[in-house]
Amino acid sequence: MVDYLISTSIVPFVGLASHLSHIEVMSSIILVGNPVSTFTRTIALGLHEKGLDFVQQPELPHSEGAKTHHPLGFIPSFSHNGFWLFESVAIANYIEEAFQDKSKLRPERENVQANAILNRWISFISQFVFNRVEHGVVKPRLSLQNEGKSENDIKDSIKQGVEEMEEVLRIVEDMLDEAGPYVMGNTLTWADLFLIPPLSDLAVIPEGNDGDYPKLSAWYKRIIERESFKKTFEGTLASKL
């Protein structure tokens, strides 16, 4: 088994069992999850930032392929040299430990407080930002649009969701490092990579233009210029709108 695939690719799913033996010959790193998934994109962003080539199997949540490596069928799941893992935080931590010779996306291990702050960021983003942006605003808006609802009806229906989303975005704005340019200061971390996917989806709907978040807006403009962002944009919800 070679260490890395020559170039990152997304392999269409026909049947997971029929593909995996072939994929594992090609690459030691496999990412299972559709690009539309924000958490799958987080892991893909991290792999690109570390310069690691991988094969991506674009499974949707709860598909038979997704259930193969997650007992509830969630995505992403991840394999390195045949070692399979699910849950994005666990995957991110594994990538940091397994590829310590690559670009670091967390503070030095001995900096206990900085790592605690990183973990706080990831937890807050995963629990509150993701849910209030994606489930509270983005997906309800798109569902109502698909039903042919008027703009006024849509705004009325998601009003509470928008208010709850704005609450967490104000918290993010206040928590962002004053000096920047990244969430935790001068160094890109997993906090940036967990935060950018839901905000990328938000940016392409009208509610993404609401609110006054100068630090968050400046951070967003910097992150979307990174090669990892551009390489993981295709197939996302934002890319389809």
How would you describe this protein?
There is one protein chain. Helix 2 runs parallel beside helix 4 (88-98), helix 5 (112-146) runs antiparallel to helix 7 (159-175) and helix 5 packs parallel to helix 8. The protein folds into two domains: 29-99, Glutaredoxin; 112-232, Glutathione S-transferase Yfyf (Class Pi), Chain A, domain 2 (Up-down Bundle). It is globular and about 50 Å long. It has ten helices and five strands; from the N terminus they run βαβαβαββααααααα. A five-stranded mixed beta sheet has the order 1-3-2-4-5, with helices on both faces. 53% of the residues lie in helices and 7% in strands. It has 241 residues and is of the alpha/beta class.
SSE arrangement:
Elements: E1 9-10, H1 16-26, E2 29-32, H2 38-49, E3 55-57, H3 64-69, E4 77-80, E5 83-86, H4 88-98, H5 112-146, H6 151-157, H7 159-175, H8 190-202, H9 214-223, H10 227-231
Parallel strand pairs: 1-3, 2-3
Antiparallel strand pairs: 2-4, 4-5
Protein name: Glutathione S-transferase
Subunit structure: Homodimer.
Domain GST N-terminal: 27-103
Number of helices: 10
CATH class of the largest domain: Mainly Alpha
Compressed to H and E, one letter per element, the order equals EHEHEHEEHHHHHHH
Shape, principal axes of CA atoms:
globular
The beta-strand count equals 5
CATH topology of the largest domain: Glutathione S-transferase Yfyf (Class Pi), Chain A, domain 2
Using the 3D structure, state the CATH architecture of the largest domain: Up-down Bundle
